Amino acid sequence: MTIKQIYTGCLSQGAYYIESNGEAAIIDPLREVHFYLERAQLDKAKIKYIFETHFHADFVSGHVTLAKKTGAPIVFGPNATPTFDALIAQDGQEFKVGNITIIAIHTPGHTMESTTYLLRDENGQDHAIFSGDTLFLGDVGRPDLAQKMGVLTEKDLAGFLFDSLREKIMPLADSVIVYPAHGAGSACGKNMMKQTVDTLGNQKKMNYALRATMTKQEFIEEVTQGLLSPPQYFPLNVSMNKHGYEDISEVLKRGTKELSPEAFEAIANQTGAIILDVRHQDAFAKGHIPRAIFIGLDGGFAPWVGALIADVKQPLLLITEPGQEQEAVTRLSRVGFDNTLGYLKGGFDAWKKTARVYDNVSSITAETYRQEQKENPSPVFDVRKQNEFMSEHLENAINTPLGTINEHLNDFPENNTFYLHCAGGYRSMIAASILKSRGIHNIINIKGGFTALKQSGNKISEFVCPSTLSPTASQWSSSPQPPNKTAAGPCCCII
Description:
By secondary structure, this protein is of the alpha/beta class.
């Protein structure tokens, strides 16, 4: 028996390849399916089943494409209503894959169709669960995504989740390995560990939602506390996963069309496409096409695209480093942004060579900021998450989290210069590009972000340990290492 976790860092998502005696199963596949096909070919195995834990909101799954290429049935749990052919499993239904058995365990709560898959090994022993968004490491799935007005509330769903965990998951042996669908950084939970594999026994000890003495009412209150609004693209991804989508080969063909500066400019004007610059933030700061939005491939690319652009049907035009065009289109497609119309051939250098107008972002070092603040104090805005800010921040800084920056546009000075920073420089450059696209140009970005500011001797607020903040809202964890290492995935990015 082989179990491979294919972890994609920019999505904080884990897909799984399971093989036994010449047969394979895939759980929650990524949209580009070549990895699973190649691995099955290497193992001389036939992909027998494609299991989905639920209709994902944060990414577009590869189930439809993989089913077309392999003929394997797509398996959902009870209550699932896809509009394409699929096998809707009953609670407790067993599926043989080689010498092992995979059992569908209906665990509603995150969504009503949410299903955990229990793997029994060749000896009939419970070996692992693939818990989807039902159980994370350090957290559980948020119960507010499948609300139905007048029918189900987030508290109703939280109650179902409590029952699912207590009746279906927690009675399993402590030795059972937990393979979740997401890790830290995902918007599908709020207190996830950085680790991506653990034992159920360890989770019973340290996951706040699995406390043995916890009442149902306590669970509901703690799980629903501190939930931020889900990104606007989530329902659109659910729809694509439920109803199907365009083959990624067509998306790549359209999105990787090379365009001259003249054609690029004409299409931008004709279609209202957003110009998306995915280069490194330093390159963007030195020069970019006016009104372009920066979201770099080197950071938490796909989730930030989803959160900030929101409409998956929005036409996009790309500025990339040469050779990164296909990577950019692929990663956009993972979150349902299939309407990329092409990229600028030759990149930003081609734009400059035609003597076209371009813009830049003023940037200074943290040391320069310290000196300038002594001479001429100006407002400074911190675009990190609220919990990061609450833990430690520049004195007199104003918190305007990037994820809600459009709600803070009136907070920024119209004429006077102000400073902008995040943790390391990635998010603040995104924020700067958004502000400039809205006509706010009096920005100075601080290179290196809060890390550099702290090291340069700037006045910092008293440190508050993240663990003392709201336990359900904290993004940090001091958890022990998992029992085994994570397999390398197609990409690894940090938000």
